[in-house]
Each structure stands twice: as structure tokens, then as C-alpha cells.
């Protein structure tokens, strides 16, 4: 049997298809958002905290503006590494994203003995979302009104002070270590799985001190059961101008502002990154979202992917230097 002849036209079509095949994956990725498919926005802390609140505010606005449903999913645990691994397993199609505090990228690699990801290779930077300080809060039963009072009390009562944190190796933990070493006091570390649990136990007096995210700190101060005694930033918070900085109280170098960003899995196409970036930027620039974030002493800070990459590298280097300076050992 004589094999069929391939005409010149057919050969040309086959050649064209061969050239197009490598690009089909990229074209498929560019099909975003996919019809009737929600965007999963993963949060690495429990529901009810400031990180969760910001994520839900932004998700709600994106849904209103774009018609694409954005669903917040809380996956706390392992210093937020479980949430990072969830993103690493996801397809790079823009429908699974991480709403991530800087500690996942800038602190965990310096403080934890085993980190199952590379902060620079395993994620796609999309945009910065918000920036804000941590606040040193204490339970009202502790007889202190400011940082110097706390130092004096801790030295007069060795071994009795404890600090809560929203996870080992997180910014709240590192700030406590840096502070206690800087002023020469000792404190027991009590780690939690999220900001909400730590803040609740501070309110109940189960822990004495806690470097809390500003939104929760300000809200809980209104109960009268806790006090804010210092803000870890270069300047006072507009939302709580009565709270002095650490530098004003004689403790310098505790002013590494925390940030929250949106990242996706590695390998996202530039086309999808641009679309996702535009969605988040539009939401973050809305007055409703800016007002919500500002109430908690944070500020909306949308960026380009390149700007987020630069911030990630800068924060990674700064936290590395801080961890080294306090002699923190990986755990």
C-alpha cells in the first residue's frame, strides 16, 4: 500500500502547528480569570486576626469590582509554612494566591531549621498589599505604663515575664527576642498559631506581653484590659498618636515595619501576573479598603511585581542581620 502523499500546503500547516505548540501552555495560562471559578486567597493565620480581616476586606472589594469571587481560606500552622506549601502545590493559573506577611519570606528562612521553600524561587511576586508596625501590648494587671517601667519590673522579678507571639520565628517572636536582649531582661516565649489566639489570651491575662499587629492592639485597648506601651516604627501611628516609639523610650533599632504581600505559585505567566496585580491594585486603591486598613494603623501599599521583589530582598537581608545580631538560633 502506497502511503499518502503530504501536500505542500499540509506540510506547511504541520510546521506551523509545531512552532505553536511551545506557546500553547502560555496561551492557556493567559485565560484568566477562568469562567465560574473562584480565586482562593490563602491566609496562613487563623480567622479573626488582623491579617484575616485585611484579606477579607480586599477579597470582598475585588469580587464587587470584577465579578470574580474571591474566597479567603485560613490555613494556619507551622509558622505559616503550611499556607506557603499550599501555594507551591497549586497550578500557576492565578486562581490560588497567598496573602502573606513578610515573616514567611524574610524571617522564616533565618529562624527555622527546616523551611520547605525558597522565598525567591518558589513564588511569583504580584503586589505589596499593606504596611504597618507591631505594637508592644501588656495586660492591665502588669504594673507598667511604658517601656522603662517594663524593664524595671522584669529585672525586679526575674523569670516571671512572658511574651506571647503568633508563631515561632514570626515577627512578633523576633521583636520580643530583640527587645529582651537589647534591654537585658529575660522572658518566657509562648507561641500561638495566629494573632487571634494570642490576642485573646492577652485579654484574659494568660500571657503578660505581646507584640501585636496594630489593628488588633488598637481594638483590644478599647476594652480597658490591655495597654499599648510602644510602637515598633520610626514614627508614631496616626491612629494612636499617644503611643510613643521605642526610640523615644530609649530602645533604638526596633523599627522594621512589617508588610503583607500577594504572591502566587512559581511559573505564573506575565500576562496573568499583570491581570491579578491590576485586580488587587484597584481594590487597594478604593477608598473603602484604604479606610478599613487605616483604621488598624496600616496603610494600603499596592506595588508592581518588581517593587515587591525588591522589598522582599531588602527585608530578607535586614531580618537576616537582625537575627544574627541578637544571636537567635534556628529552631
TrEMBL record:
Residues 1-28 form the signal peptide. This is Tripartite tricarboxylate transporter substrate binding protein. Pfam families: TctC. PANTHER family: BLR1237 PROTEIN, TRICARBOXYLATE-BINDING PROTEIN. Belongs to the UPF0065 (bug) family. Keywords: Signal. InterPro entries: BUG, Bug_dom1.
